[in-house]
Structures are given as structure tokens and as C-alpha cells.
Write a structure and sequence with these properties.
Layout: H1 17-61, H2 67-76, H3 79-113, H4 123-130, H5 150-175, H6 181-208, H7 210-231, H8 240-246
Helix pairs in contact: 1-2, 1-3, 2-5, 2-6, 3-5, 3-6, 3-7, 5-6
């Protein structure tokens, strides 16, 4: 049963079609930005891997290639990880903003419209509850953990290729009996870059994952917007728990 919104200070509230449309459009635009960034990342990755593979082929064709050349070839495959850091941060920022807008719509449009006699707004609330692709239902479907994780996945692939080429380079140096001070320095550099790349990969995951950003942010924003609505007198304070349950995207229906 839906609860009536009891005014504490004032019951004045008017739904604005223009504001609602503007908010929905901003969500769509931010989703488009996330998709475009993803395409750009994939293009950059393919270009960098192409250059790395071409150089790697040269090291195989030319048996006299030194460890430095092989090292540069390995480093090319780790460059995308550093490139993905700002992209993942921007992607996470857009996801958090989408969560904030969605939470605002759910509280000030969809929940309040339940007790009004005019038009009903219910897309965000119902979509979160029902949609099979909602990140809030991710625990039911294992593939959901990969949502917005392209930067993390591509970073892991880059790191794996980097490790393989670094190992190949060191093996070649051992076979050529040329493992000296130069190779020792390279091993240290390899290790430092690998550790840095792994740490960045974890950072990328935490910055862009929907389960790490949207799920946490939207619940927080819903709570804050409900408290703001109570402060404005649009929702009764004693109904806080019931309102939070009604707007909880992870609840069962």
C-alpha cells in the first residue's frame, strides 16, 4: 500500500514536465558519453597493441635485438592501463551523476506522484525493480559484474600480455647468455611497472564498476533526497523507513 505524503511545513509541490524532461535527457547524454569513451578506449588499445605486435615481430625476425628493444616492446602493452585511469574516473563520475539524477526523480517525482491526483511518474523506480539488466539485480546474474568494466577487463589483458612478453625477453637474454647488469635493471623496471599497473587496475575497477559506483551512490542519494523532502515538508518524518523501503531498488516485488 502506498503511503500518503504528509506535509510537515508546506504541501506546495508542483511537477514540472520541463524539468523532468531535462533530467531524463541529461541521463541519456551521460550514458552516451560513457559509451563514446568506451569506443575511444578500445580504438586506442587496438592501435597500441598493433604497434606493440609489429615491434615484437621485428625482435623475432632480427635475432640480434637487444633486451632494451624487447623491453620497449613489452612496455607498449602496458600503456593502455595508464590511459584508462582518467577515462575510468570520468566514467565513474558520469555514473554517480546518473545515480544522483535518478534518485532525485524517484523521490521528488515518482514517490510524490503516488499520492497526487495528477500524472504518475514511475520509470526509474519500476525499471530498477524489474529490469533484468539493472545493476541492483547483479547478485542474481553473474554477468552483471562486468557492467561498465571494459576498462578493467582490457587492463587485465594488457597486463597479462605484458607479463608474457617480459618473460619472453628475459628468457631470450638467458638463452643468449647475456644476462648482465642491463638485464638486472630491466627486471627491476619490469617489476615496478607491473606492480604499478596492478594497483592502477584495482583503482580502475573501483572507479568505473557499476556495482562499486551506482549501487552505493544511488542508495545514498535516495536517502539524502528523502531527508531533504522531509525538511521541505513534502514527506512525513515518521514515514521515512517506509519511503526508503518503497524506493529501495534491491527489494523484492
Amino acid at each position: 500500500m502506498y503511503l500518503k505524503c504528509k506535509a510537515k511545513k508546506t504541501t506546495r509541490h508542483k511537477f514540472s514536465d520541463s524539468e523532468y524532461t531535462s533530467l531524463r535527457n541529461e541521463i541519456v547524454q551521460r550514458i552516451a558519453v560513457i559509451s563514446n569513451q568506451s569506443y575511444s578506449a578500445i580504438f586506442t588499445l587496438i592501435s597500441t597493441w598493433g604497434a606493440g605486435l609489429a615491434l615484437f615481430k621485428c625482435t623475432i625476425d632480427y635475432a640480434g635485438s637487444g633486451s632494451i628493444i624487447r623491453g620497449i616492446c613489452s612496455f607498449l602493452f602496458i600503456i593502455p592501463v595508464f590511459y584508462f585511469v582518467p577515462l575510468s574516473v570520468k566514467s565513474g563520475e558520469n555514473v554517480v551523476q546518473i545515480a544522483s539524477i535518478a534518485a532525485y526523480i524517484k523521490v521528488f517525482y515518482e514517490y510524490l506522484s503516488l499520492s497526487e491526483s495528477n500524472e504518475l511518474f514511475n520509470w526509474e523506480t519500476s525499471n530498477r525493480l524489474i529490469s533484468n539488466v539493472s545493476p541492483f539485480k547483479g547478485k542474481r546474474k553473474y554477468q552483471m559484474i562486468f557492467y561498465n568494466e571494459e576498462y578493467t577487463i582490457l587492463s587485465v589483458f594488457s597486463i597479462v600480455i605484458y607479463i608474457c612478453l617480459a618473460y619472453y625477453s628475459l628468457q631470450q637474454s638467458i638463452q643468449n647468455k647475456s644476462f648482465g647488469s642491463e638485464e638486472i635493471v630491466l627486471v627491476i623496471v619490469y617489476s615496478i611497472i607491473l606492480i604499478t599497473a596492478i594497483l592502477l587496475c584495482v583503482f580502475i575497477h573501483n572507479s568505473s564498476s557499476l556495482k562499486k559506483t551506482m549501487m552505493v551512490s544511488e542508495n545514498l542519494y535516495v536517502e539524502l533526497y528523502v531527508k531533504r523532502a522531509i525538511e521541505m515538508g513534502l514527506i512525513s518524518e515518521e514515514n521515512f523507513v517506509d519511503v526508503m523501503r518503497e524506493l529501495n531498488p534491491a527489494r523484492e516485488i
